[in-house]
Design brief:
39% helix, globular, binds calcium ion, Type 1 dockerin domain, mainly alpha
Length: 82
């Protein structure tokens, strides 16, 4: 789990400059929406850009903060594949 999260942070940092992300709740971009995605949004709960736990992909509505709306959006897409 720790290793997984570290990997994600690396990916997140390196891909933050491209805007290919489609905000559908697939936070780790493995083409399916599952607990991993939800836990990643949850991990960034109430963070803003610049916070150490900020997860850019987790801000689905791009309002600059990860809140319940983002988590519930991810939860709504749960189980979907892209
Ligand atoms: Ca995923
Ligand atoms: Ca948001």
């Amino acid at each position: 789990m720790k290793k997984d999260l570290g990997c994600f942070l690396t990916i997140s940092n390196s891909s933050s400059s491209d805007d290919l992300w489609d905000p559908n709740g697939d936070i780790n971009e493995d083409r399916k929406i599952d607990m991993k995605d939800i836990s990643r949004v949850a991990a960034g709960f109430q963070t803003r850009p610049g916070d150490t736990k900020w997860t850019a992909n987790g801000d689905l509505d791009e309002n600059g903060v990860i809140n319940m709306k983002d988590i519930s959006t991810t939860a709504k897409e749960f189980g979907k594949t892209t």
